[in-house]
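To whoever is on call:

I kicked off a structure prediction for a single chain this morning and the downstream step that reads the tokens threw a length-mismatch warning. I double-checked the sequence; it's 330 residues and nothing unusual in it as far as I can see. Pasting both halves so you can look.
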Amino acid sequence: MPFPPSSARRAAAATSLVLLAGCTGGSGTATGPLQQTTITVDAFGAIDTAGLFIAEEDGLFARQGLTVKLRPQIAIQPQVDDLIQGKADIASGDYVTFIENQTGGDPDLGGRNPALRIISESSFLQPNVLEVVTPPRSSVTSVAALKGKSLSVLGPDNVGDILVDSLLTTYGIPITDVRFPDVPFPLVGKAFQARKMNAAFAPEPFVTLLEEAGVQELADLDEGATTNFPIQGMVTTRSWAQRNPGTLQAFLRAYNQGQAIADTQRTQVEQALKTYLGLSPVAAALVSLPAFPQGVDPARLQRTVSAMLEFGLLSPRFKNFDIRSMIYQG
């Protein structure tokens, strides 16, 4: 369970509130009627969710008159299911999954269109946050050497798939010349020991945890065509947003404050990662962090659509798909 904020965190939150007054449309406190005072948020268990964790831990949602129930999640698709079924009001996750559901329907619920609306970005890529790694003393010492090898990506059709495909394409390696086994991030180290694959896509904090065990970095995915690539965002459904405009604005005021703290106060992020992800103090201090933006940058998010089209994650019939159709306009 989250613990009460320290005086230092309260001071940082207050400073953030002042800085945000000009861009959130208010003084940082509740300014309109709340259609709901209690909301359920599916929270993906990743460092990208730090702004959300901080907003809850520091009482920023409570200041807006909201009780936010965070439900930890380890996968994205079940969160979309929850939104459609009314089990959650807001969810966090990668844009690839959200776009796939928006364009092709929810695969778990008979292809139902979720009418998702992106309400805020959560993170975009920075150095050393997402990497391709190899086992200790690996013979694969360059990206070019991946041709004919195996590289785990934790399942197809996600942001990792796009980033790895882009890396291989940059180095002239046909995607068909690489095998992609599915290995959960916590099992990558054991899979390396068992020689089940030659390399792996890994996000923080697993990059740091694996490096402590001698695993080596092969490539940083924050480079070339995928520099500053959008990773994770917050969504709701169009119908929920229409029914709860005041509640959503209150949520976003607090969330933006959490994002501002996450982007400027590393110690706050480390505390959130220890509390919500169970990282040790040493691991929390060593992990590389993404950027934590506020609001939504349509041009940045359109890059996801372009990459999905390029690598076959989105049908060519959606070549004119505009991400702005998914962005909450409030």
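Update from on-call: the warning came from a stale cache, not from the record. Cleared it. Sanity check on the structure: The first strand starts at residue 38 and ends at 44.
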